[in-house]
Each structure stands twice: as structure tokens, then as C-alpha cells.
Description:
This protein is of the alpha+beta class. The chain is built from four helices and six strands.
Amino acid sequence: MYIFADMTKETQYSELLEEIRSVIQDEKDTVACMANVAALIHERFGFWWTGFYRVIDNELVLGPFQGPVACTRIRKGRGVCGTSWNEGRTIVVPNVHEFPGHIACSSLSNSEIVVPVFDESRNITGVLDIDSREFSTFDETDAKWLENICALIKI
Ligand code: SME
């Protein structure tokens, strides 16, 4: 049952990656691409909140997203997003209430994943943040595919 569930997720992401590739491949505008990427991820999995923060003047600034209103600016090292930016790695949080300094934009969010977006020089130019109302929604499979998706985005 577990293996079947995991195969389903792999298949979903594999289809999603192709959709994203075809939607953004001919578009040069980064914000337009991020907007459609957020929408495609959000629609496919029905997450609570899916969106981007962009690094602007050494802060994370809210970018295109799907879901309820969110905080607009996050400093380096703050919350899950700021920690992912600071440490330059994907962070999977099974229970946000146990993450020190978690920024609760919505009290209904219980787990999340944050994936950094890199430019060609490996500088972090933003993060993809996805929140779920369920606990332990995200795992290594999500991390792998969402990193592949973020690699398609040029900020
Ligand atoms: N969860 C984030 C804050 C952003 S909102 O959830 C959209 C964090 O702690 O970094």
C-alpha cells in the first residue's frame, strides 16, 4: 500500500514536471512563470498554500502564490523560509508547531516544505514554500521533484 501510494506521487510529479516545462519554456518573465508554477502545483495536489518568495534587497519578499493571504517579508534565518535560504537547502517540516521560529501565516497549516531556487552561479534568488493542513505531508519524494521543478525557474 505504501509503495503504491509512493508510485502515485511519483507519477503525479512526473506529469506535473512536463506540464510546468511546457507552460514556462517559452516565457522569459520570471514572475509570470512563478505564477503558473504555483498554480499548477497547487491545483494538482490541493495544498493549503503554494507560493514563492524572492530575494530582494537581502530579504525574502512575497511573490506569486495560491492560497490565503501571507506575510510579505521574511528576514534571513527567520522561519522555515529564512532558514532554507540561510542554509541553502530544502527543509521538510512534518509538524510546523515544533519548528523553532516558524512564522504562522495561517493557524491551519500543520506541515510544510521549503525549496531554494538557485541561479546559474548557485546564488539563492528565492524559495518555493508549500504548506499543508495535514501533518507529515512532505517527504524525500516531494523534495526531489520540487527541486527539479525549481531548477526550471530562472529568477
Ligand atoms: N511558513 C513560513 C512563512 C510563510 S507562510 O507560511 C506562507 C515560514 O515559517 O517560513
